[in-house]
Amino acid sequence: MYLIIGxxxxxxxxxxxxxxxRNIPVCGTYYRHADNPQWLPFDLCRDDLEExxxxxxxxxxxxxxxxxxxxxxxxxxxxNEEASFQLNVxxxxxxxxxxxxxxxxxxxLSSEAVFDGEKGRYTEDDIPNPITxxxxxxxxxxQYMRQEIESGLIFRISRAVGSSxxxxxxxxxxxxxxxxxxxxxxxxxxSFCLTEVDDISQIMARALKQDLKGLYHIASDNYISRxxxxxxxxxxxxxxxxxxxxxxxxxxxxxxxxxxxxGLDGSRLADLLDFHYMELPQIxxxxxxxxxxxxxxxxxxxxx
Length: 304
Hints:
Distance between the termini: 45 Å
Strand content: 15-25%
Structural class: alpha/beta
Largest sheet: 7 strands, parallel
Helix content: 40-55%
Strand order of the largest sheet: 3-2-1-4-5-6-10
Oligomer: single chain
């Protein structure tokens, strides 16, 4: 049985659904948002993993504990450095140690934010150099795992996106801004690898099934700038949108730094597992189909 800490998050939710649909025994936790009545309440900073297993799982020990729960907002981590450190580092390391004691496999979701964003398409061999509080927090947990948990598995993940309308992702941000006739403001030249979230779930499951350990990047070859992505989205869904602009970092109201050339090279894990990521045209096509289906449903509801 897999235990997903933070199943209420974007990737955690999709990985939970992936397991359920394939009859892989899975249990999920939430902190604030219990979107699924089967999820269990769990606070990384206060609760105890062994107590959770005894109270809710009848003493069953998870085969693997997947750490998806975190404060992933770059500016929030900077603004609330002490609280975000307690969650993203202190609390996470505490539960990692408890999972190790229970002999559960530890799987930690890290980020491209451990790099400085000056080169882009980083490999597992590139030396981390985080420039944000969030990136520094992720790197500290990575270092703890590599020193203390020999069989642990670390996934650095590039920009996750859904291929369905209504996800809590960058497409939904574009959609809301277009709907409200607001400017879509993009950081000039900022680029990343857009990776479909169900692909992330699938490759994680394959890696777990093969009992891999160590550090791997999960990222597609869909390397694209935020501006170009916004324009493609607007063209694909709305036939275009004139209010898409780029601004320099100094013109933006960020509290912390931002990566310009982000993205990860995910070929090592993909080659190892013979995995092929969804390409951007297919992601956009699937999104458009689900958008049209939702719009059709709304029109039918309005008629009745």
